[in-house]
Amino acid sequence: MSLQVVVGSITFLPCGYKRHLVFNRPHGAGAKLLEILLIALHTMRIARLFKAFATQSQHVGGQNFPHRTSFTKAQSRFFIGFIIAYLLALAFFRYRVSHDPGSYFFTVQGYEPKYSLTRVQQAQSYLENLDKSSQNQPVGIQHHENKAIPQLCIGMPTAKRPKEQHVNVAIASLLDHLTPQERDQIQLNILIAHANPQEHPFLNNSASVVNASQLADNVFTYHDIAGGSQIITEVIQDLEKAKRYNEKSFYDYSLVLHQCSQSQAPWVLILEDDTLAQEGWYTRTMDSLRELERKHNDGNRAEDWLYLRLFYTEKFLGWNSEDWPTYFFWSLLAVMSTMGIGLYFRRLSSPSSSLPYTALPSKQSDPVPSPIPLSFIFSVSFLCVPALIILYFAAGRMTVQPLPAGINVMNNFGCCSQALAFPRNMSLKLSHWLEKNITATTLNLPSNTFTDNSWKQDQGAAVDSTIETFANERNLQRYALMPSAFQHVGAETHKQGITAAREWFSVSGARGIWNFGFEELGSSP
């Protein structure tokens, strides 16, 4: 299936005219010239609409109002300037707002990896520069004793992917720029998420370059963590055979949470194995977590936040249908305010005005001022302002209302579970909640055994949706770090089959689960 993207759909132009450009490959100069000509055509249509509206308004005005005038030169210049500015704005958004998935001007070029490619290359170089003798060391389950309690425990479940494996790069990107002191503050736990661990490339000697699992502090299997529980092992095997990977992910998440909670680290970070860390992620993450801790401790609210999201996708942060009454209210207010201001100045410019302005002395030779034509006021209020409102919404929420850099509240529309950092007390509570409900599910216990009635409803949902349920029922705040400290680079998983991923680029768009702001990190000074 070839990738086709419908871009630049402008539905707000007159006469019901719509433009849909479908591209199978990036455009050349001829295609861009054609698009400019199309925009010029739309501009001419807008100009004709203004003229027709003004003529009709003047015709009506001539029957009811004593001052029947055409547009002055200044007013005509205003409309010409508005049309030119609108045309330039369309061109600007068309070529500059390709990174906002909530924009009508969004294109597939927004998925182009920039900083991601740099980080992948750095991670691969880091692996290649490791001691080559490490490749000959036996690979197996390892457990290292930490000299001190870590500041951060990282849990990462990993499974064999249908095609390319990203876990080596994921691990290397975590470690490649850490100082020795920073590395000593981290405990990295890897869970081999297979009932038969030998299926994973880490244990069947098929891992490319260097086996990055050797960089971890601990590598676990289900048998290690579950204490040899035959029931858990059989359940995992059944879920794998049935390809019920969403349900299996609950077990994985619960197990890595549990293991990290046992480390006594004050902070727990759970990562998926197809993530990519930015350079300097550790400093940004720890500074942000400590800032949140100070904020909530100062307010005596030590337990009212659940996590700091280190990855999110802008895909779900656009204009939401739930908020349409708010959007309509402000749009209507803008139109009515413009008309009210116009009518006020019309009254101000009238010879019969009783406002102090008209009492100012003037020369005998000065012409009698004419009131602002109603046609001009109506044209500005009902054509120009709505056109600007539509352009505002078409540009996309992340373009006109971007999240400020730093920590932001994100209690709604946050996606997904690629990188979530928890305070230890909350990781314990979430782990206990997951374990209790998973156990009840595994043993087919009565529904009253579940700690939350919503658990049964969430069984078919993803892990991140269930975590949101846990937070909503306890009124826990959730935060996100802007820009993201991690990127999602996996194109395919067992959870979803082959899709129309963005195959133009060596790092794909990861099925649309992509952070566009992450790609701009490399261009920051």
The gross shape turns out to be: elongated
Q: Helical proportion? A: 40-55%
Please report the first level of CATH classification, the CATH class of the largest domain: Alpha Beta
Note the gap between the termini: 40 Å
CATH architecture group name of the largest domain: Alpha-Beta Complex
Specify the structural class: alpha/beta
Q: Please write the string of helix (H) and strand (E) elements.
A: EEHHHEHHEEHHHEEHEHHHEEHHHEE
Q: What is the tally of beta strands? A: 12
Describe the main β-sheet briefly: 8 strands, mixed
Strand content: 5-15%
Please work out how many helical segments DSSP would assign.
15
Major beta sheet, strand line-up: 5-4-3-6-10-8-11-9
Number of domains as seen in the coordinates: 2
